[in-house]
Amino acid sequence: MTDKHLYPVEPSVAERALLNREQYEEMYRQSIEDPDAFWGEHGKRLEWIKPYTKVKNTSFDYNNVSIKWFEDGQLNASANCLDRHLETRGDQTAIIFEGDDPSESRHVTYRELYEETCKFANVLKGLGVKKGDVVTIYMPMIVETGVAMLACARIGAIHSVVFGGFSPEALGARIANGKSRFVITADEGLRGGRTIPLKKNVDTALKNEAGANVDKVVVVSRTGNKDVPWNAGRDERYEDLMASASTDCPPEPMNAEDPLFMLYTSGSTGAPKGVLHTTGGYMVFTSMTHEYVFDYHDGDVYWCTADFGWVTGHSYILYGPLCNGAVSLLFEGVPSYPDSSRMGQIVDKHQVNILYTAPTAIRALMAEGEACMKGTTRKSLKLLGSVGEPINPEAWEWYHRVIGNSQCPIVDTWWQTETGGILISPLPGAVDLKPGSATVPFFGVLPGLVDSEGNLLEGKTDGNLVILDSWPGQMRTIYGDHDRFVQTYFSAYKGMYFTGDGARRDEDGDYWITGRVDDVLNVSGHRLGTAEVESALVAHEKVAEAAVVGFPHDIKGQGLYVYVTLMQGIEPSDELKKELVQWVRKEIGPIASPDVIQWAPGLPKTRSGKIMRRILRKIAANEHDQLGDTSTLADPSVVDDLIDSREFK
Ligand code: WT7
Known about the structure:
Layout: H1 11-16, H2 21-33, H3 35-42, E1 56-59, E2 66-69, E3 74-75, H4 77-81, H5 86-89, E4 93-98, E5 105-109, H6 110-126, E6 134-138, H7 143-155, E7 158-161, H8 168-177, E8 182-186, E9 189-191, E10 194-196, H9 198-207, E11 216-220, E12 235-237, H10 238-243, E13 254-255, E14 259-265, E15 273-278, H11 280-293, E16 301-304, H12 311-323, E17 327-331, H13 342-350, E18 354-357, H14 359-368, E19 383-387, H15 393-403, E20 410-413, E21 447-450, E22 461-467, E23 477-478, H16 482-490, E24 497-505, E25 511-516, E26 520-523, E27 526-529, H17 530-538, E28 543-553, E29 557-566, H18 574-587, E30 596-599, H19 613-620, H20 637-645
Parallel strand pairs: 4-17, 6-7, 6-8, 7-14, 8-11, 11-12, 16-17, 16-18, 18-19, 19-20, 29-30
Antiparallel strand pairs: 1-2, 3-13, 4-5, 9-10, 14-15, 15-23, 21-22, 22-24, 24-25, 26-27, 28-29
Helix pairs in contact: 2-3, 6-7, 8-9, 11-12, 14-15
The structure holds 5'-O-[(S)-butoxy(hydroxy)phosphoryl]adenosine.
């Protein structure tokens, strides 16, 4: 590691920082040696209706996986985000809303957000929503989405937010899987100057199996388009219901282990699974990580560019920051609209101090050149964050130098939907930065690297990333399928949580995440299961078989490379390729659009019929010379055919 690639903690950062290296190490030591004492103390950062007397009760034993934190305590997540701030900061801004259209923005205070949430919580009750019911939220990035989430939390309903970019088919599958009886949506979304037909998509989704269970659809008016279809009796206007709702809605006392939300995410096999998070541990963990990782100080303006449809939006736009009484910026649009200076414009306009975004967004700006920051100073920035995929050192350096004016540390935060909050990341005042490294574990997090047999490896090494003990923000189960939870995360290496990622530990003990080692793709920071895209493709009448792999993509990180075997008698054509791209967009959504489709008369399979993706990945990446052992293939000649017919050799 040469000095050029090391960014030591700057004195100005150290001066402001909550913790220095010694303090971090001391707290980390305590958190690992005595988790009960450590979390027992830090759990007090929340307001509890009934204080807990027990702290950690967890088992990673394959035969009995069970995770409970603060299990006899009672609290309410929305009360922690709202009520308890009323006295001290009721008139302070909670959310800065920046619209898709740069001329539209507004500040929402803690008191306003509290009142809106209480009203909507009463509305939900009035519609028949009960504690434990699943409420699906399919919304744009507007204040009402946060209100809907908090209102669910207030009455003990489990929200299931579905990303607004998912297709009606994908939405319907999630509504059906969660047996959700309630859907909250908007007439239309606005993104990059275009409208997204959210309500229409909901109607389409509900025509199928999903519709049978749904009693009520609440529709927020975002664009006010009068042509939006209406289903009297089922559909309700948010504005009408809110007009007469009372602001008096005491928070439901929730057990620490009562569910707060579920969120669907892709795995290496099967349909997306509903990751279930509970209340107490999740709130302790997200608020604490938000404070320490972003070195959040009272009054800082904090902007996380994620969408509410992903876990980052849950943990680091809503729950973590609001629990800490932060000013959280909520952006409806995209960084490229009206032009690529938008990110810098927003930073200057709202004097943003902390910016948390994804490598794919940075690379897209980088491709525009430094001109995209012209006309903005970004002088207010103190700290930058990165999340969602490995950040290549080149993008890291550009983020640091161009966006951050070489003045801001970058926290490269590694975590997952399943982990609830950040597990590996530098703390700004404590850890020297290395572009591309997520560096050190957060308090209470015990990472390990194992070989394929599950042997723990010591010192400087590569390996599969596991976590050896529970942390409070961990998911508790897969909604409705605890066996799948155990199989997915605890069966590969007994007694350990397997992340699905590979990582390297360097001579200083710092971690470098190298990416997924399973059949999960990371496209622009969004997770996609290869199996999910394949099953969408084979549902097309002309497709006999399909195999999907990732390949290196300059902006998206990974692109989708698809091998398709057509049904007997079907002629390949460019029109058919377009049709298949449209088909996948319809089945899943635009994020799953194939980048390359290659016709494959045959796929490389083992004699037992398993597709050898390792070989397909090499062909996609144009590394035919590194195919490795192909002797176990049933028919090795299919590989030569695929290489010969590859389009851009
Ligand atoms: C996967 C989790 C965490 C919220 C957003 C994505 C990859 C995430 C990093 C990082 C390298 C990263 C991993 C992980 N990932 N952050 N800082 N460096 N890789 O959540 O959709 O659950 O995806 O994203 O591969 O397993 P997710």
